[in-house]
Design goal:
Blueprint: H1 2-37, H2 50-61, H3 64-78, H4 107-121, H5 125-135
Helix pairs in contact: 1-2, 2-3, 2-4, 3-5
């Protein structure tokens, strides 16, 4: 009897993992399809493949709500441009951080840095976006 309850729990865990993987795959596919069909053309700029960085951010977060907040925040900040520099020249990359290191690394490292920064400073991407909307900076 003990073995059967463990088997049921294991099966439920596997099913939950498959569900998360399926959602991740679905959202990634939707982002690719939107890019192919040109839905992003209305507000994107001709830069270094912003949708690849957006997909990377989604994979890192693995949470659709947090991803939407980060997507909106980074669109406001840099339009997902890894070469973006603030008018003052003090903030760099996709997350527009003050670290000059951000100007020397690729967009994927910038996204990872920004996610860690937002989690450390604000606790989540949505809290960082809320702060940005209320204060005008993050």
């Amino acid at each position: 009897m003990i073995g059967s309850s463990e088997a049921v729990a294991h099966k439920a865990t596997r099913r939950a993992r498959k569900g998360k993987l399926a959602r991740c795959w679905l959202v990634g596919s939707a982002l690719c399809l939107a890019n192919i069909l040109g839905f992003e053309k209305a507000h994107s700029v001709s830069i270094d493949k912003p949708n690849h960085y957006r997909q990377w951010a989604f994979i890192q977060l693995n949470n659709i709500d947090e991803f939407h907040c980060l997507d909106e925040l980074y669109f406001y900040e840099s339009r997902w441009n890894p070469k973006a520099v603030s008018p003052s020249g003090n903030h760099f990359g996709i997350p527009q951080g003050r670290s000059k290191w951000l100007a020397t690394v690729n967009g994927y490292k910038q996204v990872e840095w920004g996610i860690k920064y937002n989690n450390h400073r604000y606790g989540s991407m949505c809290k960082a976006l809320h702060h940005f909307k209320t204060k005008g900076w993050h």
